[in-house]
Amino acid sequence: MNPEYLAMLVARDMPYGKYKGRKLADLPGHYLGWMAREGFPKGELGALLALMYEIDHNNLRALLDPLRCGRR
């Protein structure tokens, strides 16, 4: 895992779909689970979504809170 990906989760918006414009770190768990079952997209976006899925699935969303402080 690229450590910069954690910061990207709180900075990058979902580029398409039902949650277009929402930060990747703020995507709901059920949507991430659906993406995991259907298959993540290729490339960096897919890697970021897979990472966010693992963070959510393991109840580790609080790990992103220190990164959010400077973003709001």
Give a written overview of the molecule.
- With 72 residues, this protein is mainly α.
- It has one domain (4-68).
- It contains four helices and no strands.
- It has helices at 4-11, 29-38, 43-57, 65-68.
- It starts with a helix and ends with a helix.
- The model has no long low-confidence stretch (mean pLDDT 93).
- This is Cytoplasmic protein.
- It comes from Massilia eburnea.
- Pfam families: QSregVF_b.
- InterPro entries: QSregVF_b (IPR024530).
Mean pLDDT: 93
Number of helices: 4
The main β sheet shows up as: none
What structural category arises from helix and sheet content?
A: mainly alpha
Helix content: 40-55%
The strand count comes to: 0
The end-to-end distance, rounded to whole angstroms, is: 25 Å
Provide keyphrases for this structure.
72 residues; 51% helix; single chain; Cytoplasmic protein; QSregVF_b; mainly alpha; globular
Please sum up the structure shown.
With 72 residues, the protein is mostly helical.
How do the helices and strands line up, and which of them pair or pack?
Elements: H1 4-11, H2 29-38, H3 43-57, H4 65-68
